[in-house]
Design brief:
There is one protein chain. This protein has helices at about 45-55, 55-75, 90-110, 110-125, 135-150, 160-175, 190-205, 210-225, 225-230, 245-265, 280-285, 305-315, 325-330, 345-350, 425-430, and strands at about 5-15, 25-35, 365-370, 375-380, 390, 410, 415-420, 460, 475-480, 485-490, 500-510, 510-520, 525-535, 540, 545-550, 555-560, 565-570, 585-595, 600-610. It has 15 helices and 19 strands. Helix 4 packs antiparallel against helix 5, helix 4 (about 110-125) packs across helix 6 and helix 5 packs parallel to helix 7 (about 190-205). The strands form 4 sheets. The protein has an 8-stranded antiparallel sheet, with no helix packed on it. Strands 3-4-5-6-7 form a 5-stranded antiparallel sheet, covered by helices on one side. The protein has about 625 residues and is α+β, with helices and mostly antiparallel strands. Strand 14 (about 540) and strand 15 form a beta hairpin.
Amino acid sequence: MSSRSFFVFIAFSWLALGTAANAQQPLSLAQQIPAHPRIMLLEGEEEGIRKTLAADATWSALHAAILGECNQMLTEDLPKREMVGRRLLSVSRNSLRNIFYLSYAWRISREEQYLKRAEAELLAVCAFSDWNPSHFLDVAEMTMGVAIGYDWLFSALSDSSKMIIREAIMKKGIEPSLDPAYNGWLQESHNWNQVGNAGMLFGALAIYEDEPELALKIMERGIETIVLPMQDYGPDGAYPEGYSYWGYGTSFNVMFISALEKVFGQDFGLSEQQGFLKTPGYMLHMTAPSGKAFNYSDSGTGGGLQPAMFWFAGKLKDPSLLWVEKKKLIEENAANHARNRLLPAIMIWNRGIEMDRITPPKDKLWAGKGKNPVALMRTSWTSPQAIFVGTKGGSPSVNHGHMDAGSFIMEASGIRWAMDFGTENYTALEAKGIDLWNRSQASQRWQVFRYSNQAHNTLTVNNEPQRTEAFAPLSSWSAKPDFMHAVVDLSEIYAPSLTAAQRGIAIIDQQYVEVRDEIKPANRETTTIRWSLLTAAEVEITGKNTMLLTKDGKKLLLKVVSPKNIRLTTWSTESPNDYDSPNPGTILTGFETTLRKGKKGTLRVQLIPQTNIKITTRPAAPLKEWPE
């Protein structure tokens, strides 16, 4: 076998990867496989990165930030197998970050100190008794990190170190993935599948020479099963688990595809899965003018740099997809990005793009159907004062879902007026014995305050929770500048209390927002509807149908146009449950109204920024007349 390359004959029976026309068929490749390093960055390709660093101050600053982190690692304690609850994940993630950074630093600089520290990190984690296969994300991330270190440092590692590392990848990484007690994620359609398969693919590529048959089995399995979560991007690219988990699942999915492309020169049709190459549009539009994300489901508002967006932008030859990433690179200190454990990948995927080539996107509305459909609209990409609205349908039953169908966030004048709490602390809830991952109707999950519909900017009917197995589709939308809007059908979510429920949200004349609910109650004497909005602003009830929200010297008028028989009020965000997180500085506001038997109801609420420009509102037609 050549020291630079070796040949391998692969005979795979690949699972269908696209339409029915791509049915299961054998694929045989007589493929020359690169020698180490073969994962994502081949021998000699460092020179392209060095040229980019020399030519562009932005990329040079990011590179310096990575080296700065590596310099700090040189004196830190080596990792220990320390569990947090049922997870080793924080250790695995930190090890992936450290090994990836140090291996990158050595390949670009060839400074011995980075090699020695990376080797020490590798040997430390390989000495662990195991990588906690009962929570397989821990194994997957650790395997990826160790595989990168083994592959990228292969020529400089001692033979004894290579033997130890190779054995750990096999015994603590790949072999547990073959055990049915630990590999249930192979049948899942969420981020566990993406992360698990990516980690195992990297492990298989690292040890290929020594276990070719097993490595091929892992590769084949990965290509077959990662299709499951990738199908959830269809039809339009909306990621069901929301913003933060896009950053997790999609990033590892791209790592998987990028590794395949580098070794085999193709991805076996994976990127052609319906919706996958549309998903960077979803991620781009999910960031509001404030720089915060639309944080529905178990998501935070923090929007760190997303290396995967550079892979998509290169694949699609669309630099505008990087508009949000450009702002982060230019406006933030490069060191702020250095907690991202996959950050070195951006130096591979950026293709040396110059910042002035990244121009604002043209579209101001993005809408996507799917398991958790969303619509995202704004009045400008360049003004921090722009109006932004993000709204969603979907179901509480999706992975990481909340009872938030029909909910929305809204920004104007640089303030997030309508907000979402986002995620809770999983470890704290699990420590209290909460049955957190059961999404059935009677689950304890829905007793967690932040997960209930009462804590979201949506409706509560007769004080009841939303139906977990129901689904709220995105029924229509329009990007028309003077009436940008989306409509969500909430009928199933509130059945049987309501026989029909539609919510439309519009940015009108690029000046204010109107939320319109059209409701038909079931055949009962009275039906109580609660309309709520969560905010961090101060709230003052100023009239029978008006409230004034104030924050940071800015003001927003909340005006209930209809119905007339309402009770404006506020509700506390403090929960009586000892397992709920505190929610200081927030309040729920809105109103309640009662519908009589056989009477349809229309709820119209206007959210009007109080600016120096006089805003004239206008009547809005029934939802059936909203233009598509």
